[in-house]
Amino acid sequence: MSFTDPQSVTISGVTTSLPRISVGDDKSEYSSGDGLIQLSASHIYGKRTRRMLRIDTSKITTDPFKPSENVKVSMSNYMVFDIPPAGYTAAEALAVYTGFKTLFSATSDAVIVKLLGGES
Predict the structure, then answer these.
(1) Any idea where the domains of the chain sit in the sequence?
(2) Which residues contact 15 (CB under 8 A, 6 or more apart)?
(3) CA 117 to CA 110: how far, in whole Å?
(4) Bridge partners (DSSP) listed for residue 62
(5) Which pTM value belongs to this model?
(6) Are 17 and 32 spatial neighbours (Cβ–Cβ below 8 Å)?
(7) What does the DSSP 8-state code read for residue 69?
(8) Cα separation of 13 and 39, whole Å?
(9) What pLDDT digit, counting tens, does each position of 83-113 carry?
(10) Of the four, 10, 43, 88, 96, which is 20 to 30 A from 78 by CA?
(11) DSSP annotation of 117
């Protein structure tokens, strides 16, 4: 089962529509019209169940080593739930996520700001 189509994401105040471009048994992919933003949701089943939501973004920017040239740069951000096959219900996993989300979004995302600044 896939998420609703299209998905949308707001980055720096700009909302971008992400229509579904691929769907499989355990993975769906969504992409902006220009291909610079991609969202994927996937599931891997084995000794543990891994559920991942990932966003990949790209942009064209000045090459810091050759200022007269532009280069494409990219980054990714993703969340993985690594769950045993038994022992945690979906509600219990959601409770762990909710606590984690509260931690990293508190005080204007202070923990993430520090993490991106190299603190640990």
Answers:
(1) 1-86, 88-120
(2) 8, 9
(3) 10
(4) 70
(5) 0.88
(6) yes
(7) S
(8) 18
(9) 999 999 999 999 999 999 999 999 999 999 9
(10) 88
(11) T
Dihedral sign from CA coordinates of 57, 20, 17, 82? negative
DSSP tag of 14: E
Q: How far apart are CA 6 and CA 21, in angstroms?
A: 10
Residue with structure tokens 């609703």?
A: 4
Tokens of 7: 């998905």
The backbone torsions φ and ψ at residue 51, rounded to the nearest 5 degrees and listed phi first, read -115, 125
pLDDT in tens, 16-46: 999 999 999 999 999 999 999 999 999 999 9
Choosing among 3.20.20.370, 3.40.640.10, 2.40.50.1020, 3.30.380.10, the CATH entry for 1-86 is: 3.30.380.10
Closest CA to 79 of 59, 93, 62: 93
Strand partners, 16: 9
